[in-house]
Every structure is written in C-alpha cells, then in structure tokens.
C-alpha cells in the first residue's frame, strides 16, 4: 500500500475509499478541549489511557495528551516490527492539537511542548514499564529555556 500510494495515481474514488478504510484509528486524544474515549475503553486504550480519558471527560485538570491504542502494539508484533498505516500522520495531527491546547510547539526553542511517554497495558503493572520524560528536550531547547528564564534549572 505504501509504495502504491507514493508512486501511482488512484484509479477511482472507490480505490481511495478502500485505502482510507485500511487506516484504522490508532491515536486517541484527551484533555480539556477534546476527549476521545472513556473508562469503558480499557481493552483498547489500556488502563492508564482509559482513565486519563475518563478524568478529562469529567472535567478534571488533565494536561492534553494522546494514547496509542493497544492495537498498535498488536499490529507491530504481528507485522515484522512495523507500524500500522497512517499512524505517523495520526500522531502528527494529535501533536498539533496538543500544541494548540497547551500554547506550545514541539521543537520550539522558546516555548517547547515537552512530552512524557508512559507505557500502559490492559492491566496495571506498577514499576514494570518504562517512562520517558521531557521528550522533545535537547541541548538547543535547554539553552533556549535557560536564556528565557535566566536559570539553568528553568
């Protein structure tokens, strides 16, 4: 599908419709502006993702974020360590939505969107999975934040 999409025009609208149905929703937003999901979606969003969506829907102060569905992991392992079609675009669109809500921009030296990446599962496994904090922080952004705040610890 990927090479076909890049190298040849589509024959008809029905071919386009067929390709679009192959791109399954994999990214679910949560936050004050928009929430896709709730506590009942534990199998799809994992426990943490479902609970974050539920708390957002209840109006609790949850920073904007996204959850990758558990189906992304399943697909990855069933398809030789590749990601589902359309995942990259869905993540990029979700990051743009988070930037708007948070008033920041991923990669911006003066006002960066920094992300936390947390593993999740359908069942709770405290301490068993890794967390990556401050995704998006690099030397250039750290220098920008230091200059902006006048504090190396910003």
Automatic annotation (TrEMBL):
GO terms for molecular function: ATP binding; kinase activity; pyruvate, phosphate dikinase activity. InterPro entries: ATP_grasp_subdomain_1 (IPR013815), PPDK_AMP/ATP-bd (IPR002192), Pyruvate_phosphate_dikinase (IPR010121). Residues 43-80 form the Pyruvate phosphate dikinase AMP/ATP-binding domain. Pfam families: PPDK_N (PF01326). PANTHER family: PHOSPHOENOLPYRUVATE DIKINASE-RELATED (PTHR22931), PYRUVATE, PHOSPHATE DIKINASE 1, CHLOROPLASTIC (PTHR22931:SF9). This is Pyruvate phosphate dikinase AMP/ATP-binding domain-containing protein. It comes from marine metagenome.
């Amino acid at each position: 599908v990927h090479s076909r999409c890049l190298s040849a025009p589509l024959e008809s609208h029905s071919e386009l419709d067929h390709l679009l149905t192959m791109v399954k929703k994999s990214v679910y937003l949560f936050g004050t502006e928009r929430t896709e999901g709730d506590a009942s979606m534990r199998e799809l969003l994992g426990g943490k993702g479902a609970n974050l969506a539920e708390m957002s829907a209840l109006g609790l102060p949850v920073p904007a974020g996204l959850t990758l569905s558990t189906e992304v992991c399943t697909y990855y392992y069933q398809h030789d360590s590749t990601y589902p079609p359309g995942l990259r675009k869905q993540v990029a669109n979700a990051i743009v939505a988070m930037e708007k809500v948070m008033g920041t921009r991923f990669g911006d030296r003066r006002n960066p969107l920094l992300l936390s990446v947390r593993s999740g599962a359908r069942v709770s496994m405290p301490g068993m999975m890794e967390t990556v904090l401050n995704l998006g922080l690099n030397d250039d952004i750290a220098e920008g934040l230091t200059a902006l705040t006048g504090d190396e610890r910003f």
